[in-house]
Amino acid sequence: MKKLYITLALILFVLVGCSPSIATTTAANQSLPKNQVSGNLRVYYLDVGQGDSTLIRTPKGQHILIDGGDNHKGDDVVDYLKQLGVKSLDAIIATHPDADHIGGLDTVIDAIPTKSVYAPRVSHTTNTYKDFLLAVKNRGLKIKATKTGLEIPLDGVNAKFIAPVGEYGKDLNAWSAVLKVTYKDTSFLFTGDAEARSEADMLKSPEILKVDVLKVGHHGSDTSTSQEFLNAVKPTYAVISAGKDNKYGHPKSAIINRLKKSKVTVYRTDTQGTITAVSDGSKIKFETMR
Questions:
Q1: pTM recorded for the entire structure
Q2: Which of 69, 163, 175, 288 lies at a C-alpha separation of 20 to 30 Å from 194?
């Protein structure tokens, strides 16, 4: 019987063309819902381990990808997108040059036609960042610099950057592009790795911060999501993208407790896999993979 199980496992390995652990992940990915109900906005917080990658699908079928996970996650992100029926991307946003956010973007750009790319006006010397720039160049695209007030042209959905607000030197996290997406009466905030310095600048215009769903900054690090920032955002839901048992201890217990005390419903990719938020313009429901 044991030999039979081993044989079946080897057959699965050959058919899928990857290790058993990756095969399991791919099988789970296949259950991602492809169908887009007319009038719904869908936000997929993709499970890319210790990193970030989020796909937004508008009611009109436009697609925006925010970050692409680490270098070894590029193929996984491409698989996610293909399983969701994504033929092209209207925009890619590289929130900042850290590898766990942009590492997979060169693979995505090489694989899927992309109309526009947005990133903050800050550079990095890593090969990961150079690979990203080369992929953009090879597609014949130019990077549009993110800054507060810049809008991404979409049909029926407002997508506006509210950070970076200022200049932050070599502080890459502070440069994070922060996007607010509004669909009718519902709204979402995507914060990259924005930390207290950036949050303080965004708090100078607190009236624009309130949203229904907060993508928690920096994987739930205690350098982000200050109480003042959380008080201004006033989310009903929060999503944290982090890897299971990661070496950084993300998300930090202080942040989880802060969110709970503020009566925010928390979703986590490290415990629930890919998380999908579905908005019909008036209410939001969530779907999880696990």
A1: 0.88
A2: 288
